[in-house]
Design goal:
The complex is a heterodimer. By secondary structure, chain A is of the alpha/beta class. Chain A has 16 helices and 19 strands. Among the domains of chain A are: 112 residues, Dipeptide-binding Protein, Domain 1 (Dipeptide-binding Protein, domain 1, Alpha-Beta Complex), CATH 3.90.76; 217 residues, Dipeptide-binding Protein, domain 3 (Roll). Chain A is globular. The radius of gyration of chain B is 24 Å and the shape is globular. The chains are: A alpha/beta, B mainly alpha. Chain A: Keywords: Signal.
Chain lengths: 520, 319
């Protein structure tokens, strides 16, 4: 009798457990009109104006829109702004698209654009994007569908900055009346709206019924289980539990391309892997510019491309290769042969009085690719005499050590190249990119050149200025561009139809998500 | 009354332990490098932005005030809100608890199914018996191979060749029982490896000890069949230490599934705590550690209570 009672209790407990679990929907609320995105990571916050991580940007792009967007050639295209006009070097007029509507049914009006841009500029918002927008002197709305912007000084990248998701247009009326909190909710005018979110587990997005592209093929539901592990996403794609996903590791892309029903689209980006070298810490060998220059020269970028990326990417420059500019290609780091660079590196080390400097390469554990790049870098700089260790801290520790404490020698990460050649190099000015002050040496001549280039229109004069900037950057050897970063979009060709840009400048990987179509 | 006097001091010690754990986890989290501002803003951290984020999440207040505020909320049943979602973490823990419970139960079943027969075999078989050798090999492997090594190996194999089982992509057991089993078997197997070794070794030791006792010799002399001797005499007497170990192991499973949940993307409590730690989402980690501590303390107190109920000498001062 006792045994029976115990068994009964156990059975009850198990049944109760199962009962609770019954309330747990799966990763995907599959239906015929659902496509499933294997999302590699959870967002780091809800505020589109604040988060500086791609994993967040990709989710925002499903829900929010920007005034402008870009095409394959990185040319600006209409977004929420149906048209725009630059009426003087500092004046712009934007006409907001009639029919653009937030997912709650309220039309997007000029006040939303003005409120969003002012929110980014507000220091209390803590948006890093304020620096890329230039200085707005005046912003007005002559009517509900027109916005005029007056900048204090010409800023060529102003329009390109508006095409980045960090400049998303939020529903300002709802924000002001308290019915929308941008730090805990997503609500925009984009193709989808959030139906359900389970933290670190999954997102379920429903098609925005008010989306202005009425011909959009977007499915009724976009389900996004979060699967951080590359192998797990690969397996899920193979057995059909997800329809599409992304990888940064070319090996995975190569392995998947052998499956007949899986297509892998490489998407060229303006982004590149980079190394930050600590010029500020007196405890680091890199405090001496000659040691930094030697390190930069000794790095074998071709080896990184060949060994880590199987030759699938390209050596990259501070002014990203994807823009087709040749501004940096004549700098010694790129122009000299490997032998000449090594000889020069050794000579610089000898001149600095340290023939075997001991350094530590910090490569976060967030992405396996960092560790592999670090290993190749470790071997290539050893040829010049460097003795390098590799450490792999978690992301938060890496960020703290590099951008707050400056407690490192050299660290590995990547930079978004955005959609204008002058945008990413702006980060080389520590008075502008103040987060780099912990490790970046201030070079007044470079600061001046970087400020000047912002106001120059695209053309020969700007290209010449870019060459001048590249030479100064190469001389300082403080932030080093390595190789381009390619995103790989892998999808089940037998289950969905995908449209993706060949090139992306704003990490807008799923720019055409509204044209993804289920074949079920 | 005897039980009450025995139990009250233990309750007081448990409360003090919980307070100590709360202070320790609170301080530890703030001592590790990096904060939520770093995670949220990525590399674009300005002192002003950091300050704005700190004010937004109450991190600008002195540590003692933050701790007391958290403690005060805890006493009202409020475990705090996630900095990422601004949603109450208690809801998330409740939602995820059944997933971790299921994983722990499956791992326990696998550990018992593997460890018990092998342990008995190792205990009764002669030293040079193949089965005994196999059992010792499994025991050594289980005790020495870390779960992340086995997990990574299984993920590699089963992501290349599906072989019916699935890697990642959790589905609930009611929604899709077969799909759930396909997803949960690999993590359960990974998590159970140490358990197999533990149960195997404990069972073998217990069986070896029982086998040398007089009543077994007597049973043999009586001509009882070996299977009856094992079933009626050996197993019953060897069960007590095995049950004790299994109980403790289950507690370990409930609190120690972090690595396996992360490896296999199983949305349980362990995965949640890991993400919280990665994001420096303090409320999640603090609540997670506190819940794990509470589970262990409760299990231990229940065991103490059981001892007192079973043995009248416990708590009476007579030993």
């Amino acid at each position: 009798m006792k045994t029976t009672t115990q068994q009964g209790l156990l059975g009850l407990a198990f049944a109760a457990g199962l009962g609770v679990m019954a309330g747990l929907p799966g990763a995907a609320l599959a239906s015929d009109d659902t496509i499933i995105w294997g999302k590699p990571g959870e967002i780091t916050g809800f505020d589109a104006h604040v988060a500086g991580t791609v994993t967040s940007w990709q989710m925002y792009q499903m829900v929010y829109e920007t005034l402008l967007t870009t095409d394959d050639a990185m040319a600006l295209q209409p977004g929420l702004a149906e048209s725009w006009e630059q009426t003087s070097p500092t004046s712009y007029v934007f006409r907001i698209r009639p029919g653009a509507t937030f997912s709650n049914g309220r039309p997007v009006v000029a006040a939303d654009v003005i409120g969003s841009l002012m929110r980014i500029k507000n220091p209390e918002t803590a948006s890093y994007w304020t620096a890329q927008l230039g200085t707005i002197a005046k912003i007005e709305a002559p009517d509900d569908h027109t916005v005029t912007v007056e900048l204090e000084a010409p800023h060529t990248a102003f329009l390109a900055a508006l095409a980045h998701i960090t400049a998303a247009i939020l529903p300002i009326k709802e924000l002001e009346d308290g019915s929308f909190d941008p730090t805990s909710q997503l609500m925009g005018s984009g193709p989808f709206m959030v139906a359900e979110h389970k933290q670190d587990e999954s997102w379920t997005l429903a098609k925005n019924p008010h989306y202005w592209r009425k011909d959009a093929a977007a499915p009724g539901t976009l389900s996004a289980p979060i699967i951080p592990d590359d192998s797990a996403r690969m397996a899920a794609l193979r057995d059909g539990r997800i329809d599409f996903t992304t990888f940064s590791n070319p090996d995975v892309a190569l392995m998947l391309s052998r499956d007949s029903n899986i297509e892998v689209l490489p998407q060229q980006t303006t982004n590149y892997y980079r190394m930050d070298v600590n010029a500020k810490s007196e405890a680091s060998a890199f405090h001496d510019k000659r040691v930094r220059q030697a390190f930069n020269l000794a790095l074998d970028r071709d080896a990184i491309n060949n060994l880590v990326f199987a030759g699938s990417t390209t050596v990259d420059y501070p002014v990203p290769a994807a823009f087709g500019k040749s501004a940096c290609q004549n700098a010694p780091t790129y122009a000299l042969s490997r032998e000449d660079r090594l000889a020069k590196a050794k000579a610089l080390l000898a001149e600095a009085g340290t023939t075997a400097p001991e350094i530590t390469i910090m490569a976060t554990s967030a992405d396996p690719v960092y560790g592999r790049i670090a290993q190749v870098a470790q071997q290539s700089v050893a040829e010049a005499g460097f003795v390098a260790d590799i450490v792999q801290p978690p992301m938060a520790e890496y960020l703290d050590k590099v951008f707050t404490k400056g407690d490192f020698d050299v660290s590995l990460s990547w930079l978004a190249g955005y959609t204008d050649p002058t945008m990413v190099i702006a980060w080389w000015n520590p008075t502008f990119a103040v987060w780099n002050q912990s490790f970046q040496e201030d070079v007044p001549a470079l600061d001046t050149a970087l400020e000047e280039v912002k106001s120059l229109p695209d053309g020969e004069i700007r290209d010449a200025k870019l060459v001048e900037i590249c030479d100064l950057i190469d001389d300082g050897a403080n932030l080093l561009a390595l190789v381009s970063r390619t995103d790989y979009i892998a999808y089940r060709a037998d289950k969905i139809e995908v449209k993706a840009a060949n090139r992306s400048g704003s990490s807008n990987t799923f720019q055409f998500i509204y044209d993804f179509k289920s074949l079920d | 009354m005897r039980i009450l006097f025995y139990f009250l001091p233990k309750l007081a010690v448990a409360a003090i332990t919980m307070l100590g754990v709360s202070a320790l986890v609170f301080l530890s989290l703030r001592m590790i490098p990096g904060g939520y501002a770093d995670v949220l803003l990525g590399p674009f951290v300005t002192p002003e932005a950091r300050e704005a984020i700190a004010v937004r999440y109450g991190l600008d207040q002195p540590l003692l005030i933050q701790y007391l505020n958290w403690l005060g909320a805890l006493f009202q049943g409020d475990l705090g809100v996630s900095m990422v979602t601004r949603a109450p973490v208690l809801d998330e823990f409740l939602r995820r608890a059944p997933v971790t419970l299921e994983l722990a139960l499956l791992a326990l079943i696998v550990a018992l199914a593997g460890g018990l027969p092998l342990g008995i075999l190792a205990g009764i078989a002669p030293p040079d018996h193949r089965g005994g050798l196999l059992a010792r090999l499994v025991g050594a492997l289980g005790a020495s191979v870390p779960d992340f090594v086995l997990g990574s190996l299984l993920i590699f194999v089963f992501s290349v060749w599906s072989l019916w089982l699935r890697v990642g992509g959790y589905v609930g057991p009611i929604e899709d029982p077969v799909g759930n089993l396909r997803v949960m078997l690999l993590p359960a197997l990974t998590l159970s490896l140490f358990g197999i070794a533990l149960v195997l070794r404990t069972t073998r030791d217990a069986v070896l000890r029982v086998m040398t006792e007089g009543h077994i010799t007597t049973a043999l002399a009586r001509g009882e069949r070996p299977i009856d001797i094992v079933r009626l005499h050996v197993l019953r007497n060897a069960a007590i230490p095995v049950v004790t170990v299994v109980t403790t192991y289950f507690g370990f499973l409930l609190g120690g599934a972090v690595v396996v949940e992360v490896l296999f993307s199983i949305p349980g409590i362990g995965f949640f705590i890991f993400s919280g730690l990665e994001n420096r989402d303090y409320a999640i980690v603090q609540a997670g550690v506190l819940i794990a501590a509470a589970v262990f303390i409760t299990i231990n107190m229940l065991a103490d209570l059981a001892y007192a109920l079973i043995d009248p000498r416990v708590g009476s001062g007579r030993h």
